[in-house]
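#onboarding

Welcome to the new folks! Below is a worked example of what a typical request in this channel looks like: someone posts a single protein sequence, and someone else replies with the predicted structure as tokens. Don't worry about understanding the tokens yet, we'll cover that in week two.

Example request:
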Amino acid sequence: MKIIAVPTRDQVSPANQALFDNLKKNIGSVPNLFAVYAHSENALGTYLAFSGAKTSLKAKEKEVVNLIVSQVNACEYCLAAHTAIAKMNGFSDDQILEIRRGEISFDSKLDALVKAAKSIAENKGHANPQLVENFFAAGYTEGSLIDVVIVVGDKIITNYIFALTAVPIDFPAAPAL
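Example response:
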């Protein structure tokens, strides 16, 4: 796999330079995976708008989906990044490992979410109907299901960008399962 160079601020367009500046201001750095989006004139802005769009899912719920989809797709970069983000959202190391295994013992609603999201990702949208019913029985709505699919799609994008680029991981490595 060829590693795609991570561009510096000076190597990207003025529009992408502004996005780099906003990322640096808001999160302290430009993650390598986001930087490679800037090889395209539009991809970084498009992705950031998509990723940051409003959703019915809480931050912790989004991280459950991000972690399980990244696990399904074996994305080391996203597992590292979302392990760090999950910790910032209050998950413990043990809880993060449970999420990545797709079996959550500490919260039954999140367990229904992780199982549905895993099935959606593994089966390319053709989720196990029982897992979808369990998702609804846990208190989620049809709108929640659509929002889960949006997060699954978001994560597939980043998982695939990493798979194609093999950029250096600039987060602490996620522990092995």
